[in-house]
Design brief:
Layout: H1 6-20, H2 28-42, E1 49-50, H3 52-68, H4 81-87, E2 94-101, H5 106-114, H6 117-123, E3 130-137, E4 153-161
Parallel strand pairs: 1-3
Antiparallel strand pairs: 2-4, 3-4
Helix pairs in contact: 2-5, 3-4
């Protein structure tokens, strides 16, 4: 008869659990995209598709806000949504951008955007067909002018129609 110590039994249970556990959880961007596409479906819009160039544009702006300690659609370098998208080699007919800061989860940021008329309008614009989503976490973030607390989480969603 095989006898296992409690430690060996625990290791065996953990090893089995790891073998049957899902290989990866959804990323925050995947969670945002899923929730946004669900809202779009209810409004009769087709789902947005991720485009790597738009993801890069979103990531660069989220990183700039986090690292340069600002919150806004215009970059400290004077960049705008159009220049950031074109800088990634993406040609578009129309584009829009949602930004948020401070929300710790994808669900919280989507809820915040859906409660804002302008952000909601971007999300439910059926003419937009592609998107890029990014979140940057800045652990050593400083409070932005007049704020008492650091935001730490910087979210950007870019919408475009090629």
């Amino acid at each position: 008869m095989l006898r296992l110590s409690w430690a060996r039994a625990l290791v065996l249970v953990l090893a089995c659990a790891l073998m049957i556990a899902p290989s990866a959880q959804a990323s925050p961007a995947d969670t945002v995209l899923s929730a946004i596409n669900a809202a779009r479906a209810k409004a009769g819009c087709k789902p947005l598709r991720l485009d790597n160039r738009l993801v890069a544009a979103a990531r660069s702006h989220a990183r700039a806000m986090a690292e340069q300690n600002f919150f806004g659609h215009s970059g400290r370098d004077g960049s705008r949504i159009s220049s950031r998208i074109r800088g990634q080699g993406y040609d578009f007919r129309s584009a829009a951008e949602n930004i948020a800061a401070g929300q710790k989860s994808a669900n919280a940021v989507v809820q915040s955007w859906m409660q804002s008329a302008g952000h909601r309008r971007n999300i439910l614009n059926c003419r937009m067909t592609e998107t890029g989503i990014a979140v940057v976490y800045q652990a050593d973030d400083k409070p932005i002018g007049g704020s008492r607390y650091p935001l730490r989480y910087y979210w950007v969603q870019v919408f475009a129609a090629p």
